[in-house]
Every structure is written in C-alpha cells, then in structure tokens.
Design a protein that fits this description.
By secondary structure, this protein is of the alpha/beta class. The protein folds into two domains: 3-134, Udp-n-acetylmuramoylalanyl-d-glutamate--2,6- Diaminopimelate Ligase, Chain: A, domain 1; 137-299, P-loop containing nucleotide triphosphate hydrolases (Rossmann fold, 3-Layer(aba) Sandwich). Helices cover 34% and strands 27% of the residues. It has ten helices and 18 strands. Strands 8, 9, 10, 11, 12, 13, 16, 17 and 18 form a nine-stranded mixed beta sheet that branches. Strands 2-7-6-5-4 form a five-stranded mixed beta sheet. A two-stranded antiparallel sheet has the order 1-3. α5 (99-108) links the parallel β6 and β7. α1 (5-12) packs across α6 and α4 (71-82) packs parallel to α5 (99-108). The longest helix is centred in the C-terminal third of the chain and has 18 residues, at 294-311.
C-alpha cells in the first residue's frame, strides 16, 4: 500500500485523538493492508490466519483476557503477537497499556498508540482514514463548488472567470470546495471525492482584488471540506470552428480513475450570466439522478409524433 504508521498517526491524530505511548522512533513501519485487526485469536495462541500486515487494535475484551492470565503466560502471548512483524498496536478507551505490552513494544520496535475512543467506533473511523490515505489522488486545475448537493468542477484557461463564477454562486447560497487547484481521490464506494489543498483551503483568489477568506465574508456554510464530484463544466471562449451541444442528445464524458463523469462545455461571452447557467446545469444533473431526463423525454415525444404521422 505504501503508507506508514507515521502517516496514519498524523492523519488521525486529531480525528482519533491518537497519542504515541511508545516506539515513536519506529513510526516509519509500513502498513500493508487497509483493514484493521483485533488480535483476540492471536492472543490465545492461534496464528494460522493472523492478519499481521494490519494495524492491531487492543480493546476492552483483549485487555480483560490478558489480565486473566498469569504474568508468565501473559508475557509469552504478548511477545508472540509482537514478534509477527506487525506495523503497530493501538489501545482504545484510553486504557494504560500493560507493562508486558510496553516491554514488547521496546523489544520488537513496534509503535504503541492510544485512543480514548470506543473500539468499534475507532475501527470504523480509522478504516476511513487508511482508505483515504491509500486512495488514488490527482490534482486538477479547476475550481470546485457544491451546488444543492451536486459537486461541480469548473475547468478553463486562466482568466476565463472560474473564480468569479464561483464567487457569484457563493453569493447565491452555494458552497466552495476548492479554488484554482482541486485534489481528487477515488473512495472505496467508486466515487470521486474533491477537496482542496490544505494550504489554500477556505481561500479564493479574485483578479484585481487578491486573496479573500470565504468563511469570514460569507459564513461557515459557504465552505465544504470535501464533496462528491458529479459534473465537470468547461468554460471556453467562443471559437469559430467549435460547435456547442444545443440539444444534449450527444452527451460528453471524461474519465477520472476509470469512472465516467458527464462534461458540459459552456461558451463564455460578455454579459452572459455564467453562474446562473452553471446552477441550472447542476439542477438538471439532479433531475437526471432522479430519472428525469428532459432531452430524452422531448426526443421520445418527437419520435411519437413522427410515428403517428407516418401511419396516417
């Protein structure tokens, strides 16, 4: 997978309230599988199907079982677990690790972390973090908006008016996800998720005005940390040889991470309300998700009329 315990710790430090208890020097150990593992069977001595490539989570049940053993047997079971070259161990519910676990962490150079979260909730939240870390990621030149639940990526040459269009949409009550550079990743549900670079998040550049902080001007509802990408809109200057789709009967698509997304090309001319056109495009995409395709309905009506005339 190519991610380290350090990356997992840094990404989940705030969300999971992670704390490094021991082995901070060994945080570069590799996590080789996305899922997390509770080593209950391994602690009983059964290692036939032990998932040693995963983050090991020690919860209340595992701790209670270890405490039921005498010190010699407990030390043996813990050492057997740590000797399997596991990436790290996380203890949940803020429980202090047993002395034998601390000793094994130092002996086998395995990072030991702690979280106050309930075990099941920790596993669910941590799994999402690991999946996000291993998901394919690309950076695209464009501004992303969330318009009534539809994620829209605005593409176009510099100076075409992407940020100005986004600003007008924000004034209409919609939300900015990212300006200028959009980070895209594919999640385990087969969706494309758009977000911003951390350094530019919440900011927008407006030519002639400079950098502005969107939440300060328009409130926290004007921003989204991330959004599912549903539609790509290309803003282009009119060109004599370029034909624009006037009916929608020949939809265009682009492929990102193997997933097809609809593409709409909008000509940008002086005096045209591009923000309103983009807003309508997003609304129309919502209708398509609901099974209402205006183009297809009109086409079916025309074919029906022509069919009737042909029978007369």
């Amino acid at each position: 997978m190519g991610i380290s315990v350090r990356q997992f710790y840094e990404q989940g430090r705030d969300t999971l309230s992670l704390e490094v208890v021991s082995g901070e020097k060994y945080l570069d150990r590799e996590i080789q599988e996305e899922a997390l593992n509770r080593p209950g069977l391994a602690l009983t001595g059964f290692f036939q199907y032990f998932a040693f490539r995963r983050i090991q989570v020690v919860g209340l049940a595992e701790t209670a079982y270890l405490k039921s053993l005498d010190r010699q047997d407990r030390s043996k079971r813990i050492r057997e677990l740590f000797s399997r070259k596991i990436p790290c161990v996380v203890i949940t519910r803020s429980r202090n690790p047993l002395p034998e676990i601390m000793e094994a962490s130092d002996e086998f150079k395995i990072p030991l972390l702690k979280s106050p979260m309930i075990t099941n909730r920790f596993i669910n939240a941590a799994t999402i973090i690991v999946e996000n870390l291993v998901a394919p990621v690309e950076r695209f030149q464009g501004t992303t908006m969330e318009i009534m639940g539809i994620g829209v990526l605005l593409e176009g040459k510099p100076g075409i008016g992407k940020s100005e269009t986004a600003l007008a949409l924000i004034e209409r009550g919609h939300s900015l996800v990212s300006d200028d550079i959009t980070v895209l990743r594919r999640n385990n549900m087969g969706e494309i998720i758009a977000t911003a670079e951390d350094i530019t998040r919440y900011h927008m550049e407006i030519r002639g005005l400079g950098i502005i902080h969107i939440p300060s001007l328009f409130g926290v509802a004007s921003m989204r940390r991330e959004a599912r990408l549903d539609l790509v809109i290309q803003l282009r200057r009119p060109e004599p040889d370029l034909e624009y789709d006037r009916t929608g009967l020949s939809p265009e698509f682009t492929e990102i991470f193997g997933i097809k997304l609809p593409v709409i090309t909008i000509p940008v001319t002086a005096g045209r309300d591009i923000a309103h056109v983009v807003e309508v495009a997003a609304l129309n995409q919502t209708l398509k998700y609901l099974g209402h395709d205006a183009v297809k309905e009109l086409d079916d009506k025309l074919l029906g009329i022509l069919g009737k005339k042909g029978t007369v």
